[in-house]
């Protein structure tokens, strides 16, 4: 099941239609139930995700949430401190986006300037997420749609996993 994020722009998650949100929640509920049964599959085994972090923002909670969500599904997550803001020219950002596309199946950007993320989205040939694990992202509110059999933090993780599976799985 793939979600309509645009060609390589899952950061457009804010624009999902209600039926797409329902599909994402449905997959998150499935993951929640599988986790409760101890039967969460490694559906992202062999996938490599980059986690670009320019600052610590929320004390690393968003980084840890993203990393746990991806690794529970079998993905490998590499932490990258890009300092893209110091890259002066669009050519350097474009080159960086192309390199990231060669090494990773997707990239999560946290604590980065929106303009830098947009440039990476534009030039990358992989899904680029704009803070999907951060507290202010719409995934946080969507997690409230899951039942209370698991903690709010776990519900956030299941929504992130559903989003990852829908865009790269």
Please outline what is shown here.
The protein is α/β, with parallel strands linked by helices and 169 residues long. The chain has helices at residues 18-36, 61-72, 90-103, 114-123, 138-142, 152-168; strands at 48-53, 76-80, 106-110, 128-130.
Textual characterization of the structure:
46% of the residues lie in helices and 11% in strands. The relative contact order is 0.24. It has one domain (10-37, 46-168): Aspartate/ornithine carbamoyltransferase (Rossmann fold, 3-Layer(aba) Sandwich), CATH 3.40.50. It has helices at 18-36, 61-72, 90-103, 114-123, 138-142, 152-168, and strands at 48-53, 76-80, 106-110, 128-130. The longest helix is centred in the first third of the chain and has 19 residues, at 18-36. The protein is α/β, with parallel strands linked by helices. It has 6 helices and 4 strands. Strands 2-1-3-4 form a 4-stranded parallel beta sheet, with helices on both faces.
């Amino acid at each position: 099941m793939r979600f309509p994020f645009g060609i390589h722009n899952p950061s457009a998650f804010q624009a999902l239609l209600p039926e797409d949100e329902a599909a994402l929640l449905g997959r998150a509920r499935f993951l929640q139930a599988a986790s409760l049964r101890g039967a969460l599959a490694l559906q992202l085994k062999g996938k490599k995700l980059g986690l670009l972090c320019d600052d610590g923002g929320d004390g690393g909670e968003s980084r840890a949430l993203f990393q746990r969500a991806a690794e529970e599904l079998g993905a490998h997550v590499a932490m990258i401190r890009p300092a893209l803001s110091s890259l002066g020219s669009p050519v350097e950002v474009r080159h960086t986006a192309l390199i990231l596309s060669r090494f990773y199946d997707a990239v999560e950007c946290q604590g980065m300037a929106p303009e830098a993320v947009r440039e990476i989205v534009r030039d990358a040939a992989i899904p680029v997420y704009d803070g999907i694990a951060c507290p202010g992202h719409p995934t946080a509110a969507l997690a409230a749609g899951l039942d209370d059999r698991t903690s709010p933090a776990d519900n956030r993780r299941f929504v992130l996993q559903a989003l990852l599976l829908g865009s790269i799985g």
